[in-house]
């Protein structure tokens, strides 16, 4: 290797992380394991100041130690974006338009944008990558998405974890994967950006369905049938909306991500659904959780898209009816039984 190449190898990659939640905190921890300098934007100035003083996020994953040599926190987004190579979006999808409202396409020129968001832009029924392309004229070849199976809480505990990075530009996905690989995490690259992104959205809706059935008192047997049927619904949806010959839905970026979200105690969408099944209203469940369940917003978008394409998705429809049409959860799940095999 030449002297110049050796020098470049030693220069840290500059990355901006936008968002102060649990997944953003986990990503900061993961990136800190490698030769990366992180500029971390957090909305609340009090959290920024706390992290600068105590090297811990006071609101999420509070036990994670933040490395001050590698991480600098910012309350002004434009300062966090200056001079970075990668921008990681890690705020809830519903807040993306308001979070980025003061930016323009110049802020993204020459930068790679990574979506760590597993949701859709409400009302517009757009994936985050599509919204970024429309709002900032950002080419899909400059974007990639992060998929699981991986929960922030297990990253905090340094449990062995895996991530899937998807981009139409496989070299971009591979380069970003290299920034994430560490002693407790492995990332691999694929090109199916839309397939991975849609699957990540739908699996949150399925996790809500699993939570609802648990809250109603259904057991493991029913959940196994529910999840296996959900995988079939994902295939039906993707085959119509974005078909891809070489897509392997049995791999970890699809099936694995679905399973961990459907079954894990750390799944906020499953928790949200469980509360609905136990009789909470949507509003009261949201207030008590104090976290965003992406599936709540996503189910309306996926339901709308499926109607446009005349796709029959019984699980999606059941969850939509429960959370938006205020259908009785037990009656809706009893009706769903007839569609499951």
UniProtKB/TrEMBL annotation:
What does the record give under GO molecular function?
glycerol-3-phosphate dehydrogenase (NAD+) activity; glycerol-3-phosphate dehydrogenase (NADP+) activity; NAD binding
| Pathway field | Membrane lipid metabolism; glycerophospholipid metabolism
Record has Membrane as a keyword: no
Sorted alphabetically, the keyword list is: Cytoplasm, Lipid biosynthesis, Lipid metabolism, NAD, NADP, Nucleotide-binding, Oxidoreductase, Phospholipid biosynthesis, Phospholipid metabolism
Residues annotated as domain Glycerol-3-phosphate dehydrogenase NAD-dependent N-terminal: 14-171
Which residues are listed for NAD(+) binding in this entry? 95, 152, 268
Q: Which residues form a coiled coil?
A: none
Classification via SUPFAM superfamilies: 6-phosphogluconate dehydrogenase C-terminal domain-like, NAD(P)-binding Rossmann-fold domains
Q: Which reaction does it catalyse?
A: sn-glycerol 3-phosphate + NADP(+) = dihydroxyacetone phosphate + NADPH + H(+); sn-glycerol 3-phosphate + NAD(+) = dihydroxyacetone phosphate + NADH + H(+)
Q: Name one GO biological process term.
A: glycerophospholipid metabolic process
Residue positions annotated to bind substrate are 118, 268-269
The EC designation for this entry is: 1.1.1.94
InterPro entries found in the cross-reference section: 6-PGluconate_DH-like_C_sf (IPR008927), 6PGD_dom2 (IPR013328), G3P_DH_NAD-dep (IPR006168), G3P_DH_NAD-dep_C (IPR006109), G3P_DH_NAD-dep_N (IPR011128), NAD(P)-bd_dom_sf (IPR036291)
Q: What class of enzyme is it?
A: oxidoreductase
Please list the residues that make up the active site: 203 (proton acceptor)
Q: Which family does it belong to?
A: Belongs to the NAD-dependent glycerol-3-phosphate dehydrogenase family.
* Protein's job: Catalyzes the reduction of the glycolytic intermediate dihydroxyacetone phosphate (DHAP) to sn-glycerol 3-phosphate (G3P), the key precursor for phospholipid synthesis.
Protein's name in the database: Glycerol-3-phosphate dehydrogenase [NAD(P)+]
């Amino acid at each position: 290797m030449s002297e110049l190449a050796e020098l470049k190898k030693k220069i840290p990659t500059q990355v901006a992380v936008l968002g102060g939640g649990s997944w953003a905190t986990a990503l900061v921890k993961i990136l800190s394991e490698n030769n990366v300098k992180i500029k971390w934007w957090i909305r609340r100035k009090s959290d920024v100041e706390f992290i600068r003083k105590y090297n811990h996020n006071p609101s999420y994953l509070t036990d994670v130690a933040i490395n001050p040599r590698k991480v600098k926190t910012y309350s002004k987004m434009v300062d966090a974006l200056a001079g970075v190579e990668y921008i990681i979006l890690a705020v809830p999808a519903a807040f993306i338009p308001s979070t980025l409202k003061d930016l323009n396409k110049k802020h993204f020129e020459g930068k790679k944008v990574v979506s760590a968001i597993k949701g859709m832009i409400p009302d517009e029924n757009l994936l985050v990558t599509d919204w970024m392309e429309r709002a900032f004229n950002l080419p899909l070849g400059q974007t990639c998405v992060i998929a699981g199976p991986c929960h922030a809480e297990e990253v905090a505990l340094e449990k062995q974890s895996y991530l899937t990075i998807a981009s139409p530009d496989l070299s971009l996905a591979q380069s970003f994967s290299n920034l994430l690989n560490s002693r407790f995490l492995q990332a691999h690259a694929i090109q199916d950006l839309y397939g991975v992104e849609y699957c990540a959205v739908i699996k949150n809706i399925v996790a809500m369905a699993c939570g609802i059935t648990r809250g109603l008192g259904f057991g493991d047997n029913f959940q196994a049938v529910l999840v296996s049927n959900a995988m079939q619904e994902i295939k039906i949806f993707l085959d119509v909306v974005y078909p891809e010959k070489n897509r392997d839905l049995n791999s970890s970026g699809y099936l694995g991500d679905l399973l961990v979200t459907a079954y894990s105690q750390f799944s906020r969408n499953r928790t949200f659904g469980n509360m609905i099944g136990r009789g909470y209203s949507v509003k009261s469940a949201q207030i008590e959780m104090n976290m965003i369940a992406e599936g709540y917003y996503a189910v309306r978008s996926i339901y709308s898209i499926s109607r446009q394409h005349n796709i029959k998705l019984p699980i999606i429809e059941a969850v939509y009816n429960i959370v938006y049409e205020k259908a009785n959860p037990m009656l809706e799940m009893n009706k769903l039984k007839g569609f499951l095999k």
